[in-house]
Design brief:
The two termini are 26 Å apart. α2 crosses α3 and α4 runs antiparallel to α5. The strands form two sheets. This protein has an eight-stranded mixed β-sheet, with helices on both faces. It has a two-stranded antiparallel sheet with strand order 7-8. The chain is built from nine helices and ten strands. β5, α3 and β6 form a beta-alpha-beta unit. Helix content is 37%, strand content 19%. By secondary structure, the protein is α/β, with parallel strands linked by helices.
Length: 275
């Protein structure tokens, strides 16, 4: 059975989610951009969250600001930047995990957005006991070794931002790219990071001193290619274990039944703290 949970970030934004209690370590799960926490258990009862619950972890699935139940959404006037997810949302999620843990270890499992945000946030203070990051990669020219991919990413960002500025937000649902709109300042910060070839808080990333289990896939052709993921993780001070798999897409890492061995291996990695 699941139960609703919520916590306010330091700026007052109310983040909502659901908890499936269990006796093991607490794992707070977060989603990718343009979607919400529903992607973490698709189909419901058979996805990632259910696999973690079956492993007897205490699972909390959260919506980041502007997504799912943590509105207002971008098409409702909500505005935020990527830094807000790093500096406000992830710390609040970890705090919520600590509040229910009762001394048990607390992990963050993040797909894409919450994955790389959690690694950076770990360097800001009050980190979790570890992070499982599925397809964690921020885009910057120096993080992409392939020339064709650098061109594709730069072009994608310019087009993404131009359309977003014209409308005021990125209408992912209307364009068939997800379930949740993205705010223009959020999109704009990704363009800034690419232009400046510098991530939002590289100093915090370098200060991260936690264990990280990262997954990437050779089937992820552009968004989080394994070579780019490795370069991103190399900027951190974390103790990183990076595992690469074949043939799963960016979203497939959390939505395809073929990814279940990844979910189960991630649960086993977090459960080691019990020994």
């Amino acid at each position: 059975m699941s139960e609703p949970v919520s916590i306010r970030a330091a700026d007052g934004w109310l983040l909502r989610g659901e908890r499936r209690p269990g006796p093991g370590p607490v794992v707070v799960c977060g989603h990718a951009m343009m979607v919400d926490r529903r992607t973490l258990d698709r189909p419901r009862g058979e996805g990632l969250v259910s696999a973690l619950t079956a492993a007897r972890l205490d699972v909390i699935a959260m919506d980041a600001r502007g997504h799912g139940e943590s509105g207002p959404s971008a098409d409702e006037g909500g505005r935020w930047r990527y830094d807000d997810v790093v500096r406000l949302d992830v710390p609040a999620m970890v705090q919520l995990g600590r509040e229910v843990a009762g001394g048990r270890p607390v992990y963050v499992l993040g797909h894409s957005l919450v994955g790389h945000a959690a690694v950076i946030a770990a360097g800001l203070g009050a980190p979790p006991d570890g992070v499982v990051a599925l397809a964690p990669n921020l885009w910057a020219p120096s993080l992409e070794p392939r020339r064709w991919a650098r061109w594709a990413k730069g072009t994608t960002l310019r087009v993404w931002h131009a359309i977003t500025r014209a409308r005021g937000y990125w209408d992912a649902p209307g364009l068939g790219q997800g379930t949740d709109a993205e705010a223009e300042p959020y999109v704009g910060q990704f363009v800034e990071m690419w232009r400046d070839d510098r991530l939002g808080d590289e100093a915090a990333l370098a200060r991260a001193r936690i264990p990280v289990l990262a997954w990437s896939s050779r089937g992820d052709r552009l968004l989080a290619r394994p070579e780019a993921v490795a370069r991103f993780l190399a900027l951190s001070g974390a103790d990183v274990e990076h595992r690469v798999v074949d043939d799963l897409s960016h979203m497939g890492l959390v939505t395809r039944p073929e990814a279940r061995p990844i979910w189960e291996a991630s649960a086993a990695w977090m459960l080691r703290a019990r020994g």
